[in-house]
Specification:
Belongs to the peroxisomal membrane protein PXMP2/4 family. There is one protein chain. A hairpin with a 5-residue loop joins strand 3 and strand 4. A two-stranded antiparallel ribbon has the order 1-2. Strands 3-4 form a two-stranded antiparallel ribbon. The N terminus and C terminus are likely disordered. Helix 4 runs antiparallel to helix 5 and helix 5 crosses helix 7. It has 313 residues and is mostly helical. It is built from eight helices and four strands.
Length: 313
């Protein structure tokens, strides 16, 4: 019995491919290169076969050792002590420039703090100029409030009158108050409790009389009034202005001289000045306006001819 031994050609069998290693363990240079990795980051199992050929980076268990997070934004910079965030303009699909600004919550939270820091820096670099600017703004707003209380429309006020008041506040009140508060501290260098009422009394007699007179006289010259009329109006309003201040300033100055530091006093005083400048501007301008209104009928009567039948000769 003959045995059958069938012959099987090697071409008839399917070739078995060599099993590949996991993709996570083999990365080509086209997908991950060392130039794109952060500095100082080393991977185990990295080999270079040929410098001229494309290098192959083999990362052992990359998914287990490193979490790669793609970052599309460039407005965050890593710092040693935290993260610095800057505002980067971007273009929207419509071509308009879009920026990511502060939210309302951030403005309410951080804007007062930043403004206060800027104000303190201005006091350190140029204290006189900073106080001049604040006083100029306060005296302008105070005169505008006074005009509104007098019955003028909200946006139809006398702009030249407001400018004159702001000019006096900017050029004189800020600078003079800066040196006055320093002089007052040198005049009364004591730290006892009785120093506060003494400073308040000195402020509301000597300094109040001087400053009210300066404000009234300078405004008169800015209105191009004659020295005689300025003196007569000042004499009529000096005592009422001084006593009107006694109803407000003694209570405010208990805080000024009792709790506020010297460099910050003018800011507190200017907050109260919004009320006082309204009173001061009203006193200063009502006399001038009354004098002008009384002079107008007198001039008109002198120009107009007498009314009545002609006299017979």
């Amino acid at each position: 019995m003959a045995s059958l031994h069938p012959t099987i050609s090697p071409q008839s069998l399917l070739s078995l491919t060599k099993p590949r290693k996991p993709i996570s363990r083999h990365l080509s240079a086209s997908s991950l290169t060392t130039s794109k990795l952060p500095e100082g980051l080393a991977f185990s199992g990295t080999k270079q076969k040929n410098k001229r050929a494309n290098s192959v980076v083999v990362v052992k268990s990359l998914a287990e050792e490193l979490d790669v997070i793609p970052v599309q934004s460039e407005d965050v910079t890593d710092m040693q002590e935290g993260v610095a965030v800057s505002q980067v303009p971007r273009e929207s699909p419509g071509g308009e420039l879009v920026t990511q600004g502060w939210t309302i919550y951030e403005i309410v939270r951080y804007a007062p703090q930043h403004n206060w820091s800027a104000y303190e820096e201005a006091l350190r670099t140029n204290p006189v100029l900073a106080k001049m600017v604040i006083s100029g703004i306060v005296y302008s707003i105070g005169d505008w409030i006074a005009q509104c209380f007098e019955g003028k429309p909200l946006f139809e006020f006398d702009r030249m009158r407001m400018f004159r008041s702001g000019l006096v506040g900017f050029t004189l009140h800020g600078s003079l108050s800066h040196y006055y508060y320093q002089f007052c501290e040198e005049l009364f260098p004591f730290q006892d409790w009785w120093v506060v009422p003494v400073k308040v009394a000195f402020d509301q007699t000597a300094w109040a009389a001087v400053w009210n007179s300066i404000y009234f006289v300078v405004l008169g010259f800015l209105r191009l009034e004659s020295p005689i009329s300025i003196f007569n109006e000042w004499k009529a309003t000096f005592l009422p202005m001084l006593t009107a201040g006694w109803k407000l300033w003694p209570f405010a100055h208990l805080i000024t001289y009792g709790f506020i530091p010297v460099e910050q006093r003018l800011l507190w005083v200017d907050c109260v000045e919004l009320i006082w400048v309204t009173i001061l501007s009203t006193y200063s301008n009502e006399k001038s306006e009354a004098r002008i209104s009384e002079a107008a009928p007198a001039e008109a009567s002198s120009i107009l001819p007498p009314v009545g039948p002609p006299e017979l000769e």
